[in-house]
């Protein structure tokens, strides 16, 4: 009997802690260069998150968890103010790096609870951050299996932006579902939308697919409607940067457009994210702060001082009624609403 090799499709780790500190895979340089930056201060981590060295809500949350360790190390050496005040000041700096990725705030709030009445905050935070990372990877693999169970054999899927290993601790959320579906022989065709203006779909998702030998096809963002019209897509599978208590979600700009198109064409929309992406303080999408990035990211240089400008929102909100399923490590919520979300949270 010949044994078939099991391929796990799980080789990418964008956030690492080593003996001498935190290392982040610089995603601005992919796919041309694979470079890890050594982060040695909360200021450096703040800049790395703000400047998109690390991106994707779960990965940002993991980086923030390790950032709490760095902040605690710095605070033990700060004699100008007390440890707690120094630590909280540094955590507040990290919190100001990006406003929409809720995992960032959930991780920092959890870190504050870890150090309450703790005599060895640095070691305790490091153990906690290691667990936060491990829990994320395990959650992603569970999400992948549960999301893939929604597919029929021969499924054709479209993903937007990058919600893969690069956006998480490893394996990925949306790409975790696609990885699992491909491994099980359920996914026949994978389309990756380029995702302007940072091109996460073309630079990052395609890099992941190629690295792990998973066939995928790149499309311009504007091609999605035509493919749906031709009946060539069965599922749109995306991640999330924030999930509200009523099932509304915020994700990379362009997700809402895909959701409307999918609804019109009878295509299903799956949102895959861990429970650390749930914003318990957001009743609906109206509560989500949408990050606005610099116009210079999309405006050609020769227009910089002219009469024209550019609008550059990073995320948009997709209402729950357009979502076929939200998949977390705790299960699949079909046709999400406030009641079903409340049951998940409780």
**Count of DSSP helices?**
10
Total discrete domains? 2
The Rg value, from CA coordinates, equals: 20 Å
Could you report the average pLDDT, rounded to the nearest whole number? 94
* Proportion in β-strands: 15-25%
Order of helices and strands: EEEHHHHHEHEHEHEEEHEEEEH
Q: Give the second-level CATH assignment, the architecture of the largest domain.
A: 3-Layer(aba) Sandwich
CATH fold-type name of the largest domain: Rossmann fold
Which parts are unreliable, with pLDDT below 50 for 5 consecutive residues or more? none
Number of strands: 13
Principal-axis shape: globular
How can the largest sheet be summarized? 7 strands, mixed
What is the name of the CATH superfamily of the largest domain?
Translation initiation factor eif-2b, domain 2
Structural class, judged by helices and strands? Answer: alpha/beta
Show the helix and strand layout.
Elements: E1 15-18, E2 21-25, E3 36-39, H1 42-50, H2 57-76, H3 83-95, H4 102-114, H5 121-148, E4 155-159, H6 174-183, E5 187-193, H7 200-211, E6 217-219, H8 224-229, E7 235-238, E8 242-243, E9 249-252, H9 255-265, E10 268-272, E11 315-318, E12 325-328, E13 331-334, H10 338-345
Parallel strand pairs: 4-5, 4-7, 5-6, 7-10, 10-12
Antiparallel strand pairs: 1-2, 2-3, 8-9, 9-11, 12-13
Helix pairs in contact: 1-3, 2-3, 2-4, 2-5, 3-4, 5-6
Concise overview:
This protein has about 350 residues and is of the alpha/beta class. The protein has helices at about 40-50, 55-75, 85-95, 100-115, 120-150, 175-185, 200-210, 225-230, 255-265, 340-345; strands spanning about 15-20, 20-25, 35-40, 155-160, 185-195, 215-220, 235-240, 240-245, 250, 270, 315-320, 325-330, 330-335. The chain has two domains: about 15-140, Up-down Bundle (Four Helix Bundle (Hemerythrin (Met), subunit A)); about 145-345, Translation initiation factor eif-2b, domain 2 (Rossmann fold).
């Amino acid at each position: 009997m010949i044994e078939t090799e099991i391929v796990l499709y799980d080789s990418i780790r964008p956030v690492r802690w080593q003996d001498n500190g935190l290392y982040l895979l610089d995603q601005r340089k992919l796919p041309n260069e694979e470079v890890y930056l050594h982060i040695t201060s909360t200021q450096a981590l703040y800049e790395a998150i703000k400047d998109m060295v690390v991106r994707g809500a779960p990965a940002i949350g993991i980086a923030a968890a390790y950032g709490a360790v760095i902040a605690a190390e710095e605070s033990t050496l700060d004699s100008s103010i007390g440890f707690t005040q120094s630590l909280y000041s540094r955590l507040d700096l990290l919190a100001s790096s990006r406003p929409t990725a809720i995992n960032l705030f959930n991780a920092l709030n959890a870190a504050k609870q870890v150090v309450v009445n703790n005599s060895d905050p640095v070691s305790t935070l490091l153990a906690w951050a290691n667990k936060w990372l491990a829990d994320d990877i395990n959650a992603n693999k569970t999400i992948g299996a549960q999301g893939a169970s929604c597919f029929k054999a021969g499924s054709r899927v479209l993903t937007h932006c990058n919600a893969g290993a690069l956006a998480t601790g490893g394996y990925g959320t949306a790409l975790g579902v696609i990885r699992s579906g491909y491994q099980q022989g359920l996914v026949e065709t994978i389309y990756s939308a380029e995702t302007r203006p940072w091109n996460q779909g073309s630079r990052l998702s395609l890099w992941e697919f190629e690295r792990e030998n998973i066939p995928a096809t790149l499309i311009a963002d504007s091609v999605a409607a035509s493919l749906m019209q031709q009946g060539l897509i069965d599922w749109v599978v995306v991640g999330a940067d924030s999930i509200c208590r009523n099932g509304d979600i915020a994700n990379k700009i362009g997700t809402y457009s895909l959701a409307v198109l999918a609804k019109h064409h009878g295509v299903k929309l799956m949102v895959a994210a861990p429970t650390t992406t749930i914003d318990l303080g957001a009743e609906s999408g109206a509560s989500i702060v949408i990050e606005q990035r610099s116009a210079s990211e999309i405006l050609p240089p020769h227009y910089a001082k002219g009469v024209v400008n550019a609008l550059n929102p990073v995320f948009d909100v997709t209402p729950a009624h357009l979502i076929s399923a939200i998949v977390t490590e705790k299960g699949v919520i079909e046709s999400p609403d406030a009641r079903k979300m409340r049951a998940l949270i409780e």
